[in-house]
């Protein structure tokens, strides 16, 4: 006889798998396989892939907001940039910031292959916090940050400063390889992510939700006060 806990675990895995496979990313762009090739190029230099379920979640936030000005911190190999760009209107711009020049090159390569106009995806090779100081406060619709960023707390504060009222901060990979919800996981990076998540959840000026899609996505909407 199967134990109830085992059945629940199997059901959760099936649900997670369905959410990962739900969106057919092949129809997002005219060029077949462009997202998968972006992931492969990233894997070749040791970048962890952005899973489809979490990328689809972030993409839906772009559409929901009608986001015209988006900032992505930690651009990776470009797969997430492609997802975000696929939901943008013709007058929207994605600014992808990464401190690693190779990552910036991969984003440009992915966008070129996907035939996204160069003017719609701006890449910046710099330290994100330095760039934030030059961006207009309250002018951006959506900021996307990866939870693995070493200065996550400062990046989140900086992101909220440049985010408009009603805009959204999206933190990718927030479950941190399923360690966030594990009380025994007390390594420095997990602890730092946990503190940032707790701080966001306690703020009265944010409407916060968390999804287990991919490796977890936290969405914090800046409330209209």
From TrEMBL:
Signal peptide extent: none
Is Transferase among the key words of this record? Answer: yes
Alphabetic keyword roster: Methyltransferase, S-adenosyl-L-methionine, Transferase
List GO molecular-function terms, semicolon-separated.
Answer: methyltransferase activity
Q: Which PANTHER family match?
A: O-METHYLTRANSFERASE RV1220C-RELATED (PTHR10509:SF85), O-METHYLTRANSFERASE-RELATED (PTHR10509)
PROSITE patterns annotated for this entry?
SAM_OMT_I
Q: Which GO biological process categories is it annotated with?
A: methylation
Give the protein's recorded name. Answer: Methyltransferase domain-containing protein
- Organism from which the protein derives: Dermabacter vaginalis
Name the InterPro entries on file. Answer: Cation-dep_OMT, SAM-dependent_MTases_sf, SAM_O-MeTrfase
| Keyword Zinc-finger included in the entry's annotation | no
């Amino acid at each position: 006889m199967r134990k109830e806990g085992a059945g629940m675990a199997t059901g959760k895995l099936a649900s997670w798998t369905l959410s990962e496979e739900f969106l057919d990313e092949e129809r997002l762009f005219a060029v077949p396989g462009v997202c998968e090739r972006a992931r492969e190029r990233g894997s070749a230099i040791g970048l962890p892939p952005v899973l489809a379920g979490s990328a689809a979640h972030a993409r839906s936030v772009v559409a929901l907001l009608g986001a015209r000005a988006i900032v992505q911190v930690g651009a990776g190999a470009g797969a997430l940039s492609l997802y975000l760009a696929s939901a943008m209107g013709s007058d929207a711009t994605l600014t992808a910031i990464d401190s690693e020049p190779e990552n910036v090159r991969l984003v440009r390569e992915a966008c070129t292959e996907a035939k996204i106009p160069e003017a719609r995806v701006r890449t910046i090779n710099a330290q994100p916090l330095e760039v934030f100081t030059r961006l207009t406060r309250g002018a951006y619709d959506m900021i996307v940050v990866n939870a693995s960023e070493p200065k996550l707390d400062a990046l989140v504060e900086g992101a909220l400063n440049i985010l408009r009222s009603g805009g959204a901060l999206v933190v990718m990979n927030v479950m941190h390889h399923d360690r966030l919800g594990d009380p025994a996981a007390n390594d420095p990076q997990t602890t730092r992510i946990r503190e940032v998540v707790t701080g966001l959840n306690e703020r009265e000026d944010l409407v916060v939700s968390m999804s287990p899609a991919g490796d977890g996505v936290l969405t914090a909407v800046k409330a209209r006060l």
